[in-house]
């Protein structure tokens, strides 16, 4: 499955990274504690979080996630979107809770 397919199936907003929606997704991880994400998320996963600050890009890049979904309608700082574009990491947004996003991801086959 690709990031673009997830965007379509879940009706997500693409905040940035539109040119990288062809990235493959091989699993998922949900978490807001960055040290846990660094230690347990896997390469090419979709990461669901409520965080919207610059450190999510550092962690996403380190782990090499396919995309980040910021849930619960939380805002993402503009400088974060600029850095995410530079790092080629799609940032997606959902108004749904993290629970609902994960449930939809599982239903979509992630």
From TrEMBL:
Gene3D superfamilies: HprK N-terminal domain-like (3.40.1390.20). InterPro entries: DRTGG, Ser_kin/Pase_Hpr-like_N_sf. SUPFAM superfamilies: HprK N-terminal domain-like. Residues 5-105 form the DRTGG domain. It comes from the Bacteria. It holds the Pfam family DRTGG. This is DRTGG domain-containing protein. The lineage of its organism: Bacteria, Bacillati, Bacillota, Clostridia, Eubacteriales.
């Amino acid at each position: 499955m690709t990031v673009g397919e997830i965007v379509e199936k879940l009706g997500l907003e693409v905040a940035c990274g539109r040119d990288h929606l062809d990235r493959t997704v091989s699993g998922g991880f949900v978490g807001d504690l960055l040290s846990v994400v660094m230690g347990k998320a896997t390469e090419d996963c979709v990461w669901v979080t409520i965080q919207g600050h610059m450190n999510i890009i550092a962690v996403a890049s380190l782990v090499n996630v396919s995309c980040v979904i910021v849930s619960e309608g939380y805002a993402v700082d503009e400088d974060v979107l600029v850095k995410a574009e530079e790092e080629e990491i799609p940032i997606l947004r959902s108004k749904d809770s993290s629970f609902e996003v994960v449930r939809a991801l599982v239903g979509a086959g992630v």
